[in-house]
Give the backbone structure.
Amino acid sequence: MQKEIDWNNIDLNSEPPAQEPMRQYYFMKKAREIVMEESRKLGRRLTADGETFGCQMNAKDSEKLIGILGTIGFEMIDDESADLVFYNTCTVRDNANQRVYGRLGLVHSMKKKNPHKKIALCGCMMQEPGVIEKIQKSYPFVDLVFGTHNIYKFAELLVTMYHSDRMVIDIWKDTDKIVEDLPAQRKYPFKSGVNIMYGCNNFCSYCIVPYVRGRERSRNPKDIIREIEALVADGVVEVMLLGQNVNSYGKTLDEPMSFAGLLQEVEKIEGLERIRFMTSHPKDLSDELIQVMKTSKKICRHLHLPLQAGSTRILTAMNRRYTKEQYLELAHKIRREIPDISLTTDIIVGFPGETAADVDETIEVVKEVEYDNAFTFIYSRRTGTPAAAMPNPVSDAEIKENFDRLLKAVQETARKRVGRLTGEVHRALVEEINEHDSALVSGRLSNNTIVHFPGDASLVGKLVNVKLVEAHGFYYIGELQ
Ligand code: SF4
């Protein structure tokens, strides 16, 4: 949320302030002059493009980067031929890395034609051991490389980049810093992600996130409330509270507050209609949170509860710190307390040592919990994680067979679940014109299921009542009421 700034008050002849975010506003003013000079040379406004890979946390970081680029004078375009292009990278699976290398090949040829073009890389992949050396060796035409801990420093890094004739690299191992009040350009006018915390201390054995996103640190609840109040004043009706594990919220605060406590404060905000959040780790999802969800008027009827595997033997090797039985007990408790809730999940297939019998147990859990949807992934070995050193890799043939069996079970239970509201009238937040049929709009129910129904652009951003006429697998066809 951008700070009210009197730019005339920033004196570029004096030393940059040490305090954040004022230091960054100083560099934004400095960068503005550089951008104006470059535009004058080219005889047109400079353009910029941001390419984001990975999760909603990355998307939220990119909104800040785009906000800073807009503040310093770039025109944002959705095209990698822009004068400046940044890639906010992900490294949760190897194919994410390969995609970035592929794009670098593409923009290199563009840069040969436009030597003034600037290329920046940031995000999780840049925090991974060995990646910086590879970039320096194989992609020396990249101008700026930074990580996940110093996103806020973008303006300062851009000034350094424009004043340097070689690659600028600024990667931090970790940080305890949280910088508030920076510009941000959100994707949707009516809904927004809101970071409540950064980092993760769970160290699931397959996961690289704790190594690239650092230790958990929670934002001050006052800053979160202030940001949401400003978003609501600016037209937002729905927020998605974001954290790698929101259940750990508040533990690093001077005055600790539980995640359930934070939700109750957010619920009080006038004009806010809907609250969503992700991601909840099953090991510390509290009874308090279930009760707050149950009695809330605004918290959406959807919970994403990653299972990852159904066999306790594999869960232990994954360091997930719950058993199959504990997960099932939790899922049943949530369903008992909040009967109309939709549960979705993440599942990994092919973890080292996994057998067909282990996958049978995963399918058992899927059938017993009856998810509305499940995101299924094939295990990706991440260098530096404990699982990367584990024996008994599963063969591709076994993984394929197990993956297909699991997918079939997920689709069968989801089809049964999703159709349960057919014939009922429910509120939907209209998110966009349907991309396949412009006579339809697409909306999202409180339980996160999509409904397509006849309507026009005037409905986008509105909460409307829709009759759910037919279920089609993971979505509904409806009628505006
Ligand atoms: S909870 Fe586990 S899977 Fe999720 S980000 Fe943290 S370490 Fe990774």
Remarks:
- The chain is about 35% helix and 20% strand.
- The first strand starts at residue 47 and ends at 52.
